[in-house]
Amino acid sequence: MNPGTNPELILVTGATGTVGREVVQQLLARGFQVRASGRTQPKPVFLGAADYIGFDFDDQQTARLAFKSVRRMFMLTPLDERMVAVGWRLVQQAKAYGVEHIVRLSAMGAGGLPSTELARVHRAVEESIEASDLRYTFLRPNAFMQNYLTAFGEAIRLRRLFAMPQGCGAVSVVDVRDVAAVAVAALTDTETRHHGQCYELTGPEALANDDIAEILSEVTHRSIRYVNASEREARESMLNQGMPKWLVEVLLELYRVSRDGMAARVSSAIQDVLGRAPIGFRQFATDYAEHFC
Q: Could you tell me how far CA 95 lies from the centroid of its own chain?
């Protein structure tokens, strides 16, 4: 499909974040019209040809503008204590303005009895979507490979190390590009095969941080090491960076889950949906090598 050939307008919320921007770019590349929304002004350059609106979830006027002529939506909400309330409000707005299908970015672990605070709040948002009677697809990814860029890239570049309280626990980290590709497949589905589906998205293998450091070292030709920080050190570091206390505790809980080996399972969902294997960490590191140097 050539860019600009499909008249259907798709709304992407959270479009200025790591996942949202990738969803926007992949939709545009496939020729779909995109309305991107975020909490910043003016429109970020990286959103390209997408229509853009600064969407305040609490403002009915911006909601009206965001949802105009939209039937499909990629739903990403801010990771904060208000997520459940914001998610519920967004679902109600979507239904009121005629959205028919929501593709929701959730989190691994939200599918069963929630084992973490993050899983619990994501599952609560999922339940509000289910109760709306709108068609839906839930994406439940594991930790992103791109976190090594966004959270630890500067330390890797300047100090040749990254630190977190994860011990030797292995995680089946997933590339955001694959998460976005599954989202696009669901958003552009004309045969309804993704309706009502919940996809747990992982990379092709589970890796410990020592494995990650070794791969980064080989790809960048630099000696990069992983430091197993204490929870106290990690908490202090995140708080000093200005992270809200709620988010800090959520992240520390996820580190505990990973440390205990509970984030290592590998899913076939990306292969099943896209018809190809998920991107491995070595390929990710190769593609982004210049950002680690």
A: 23
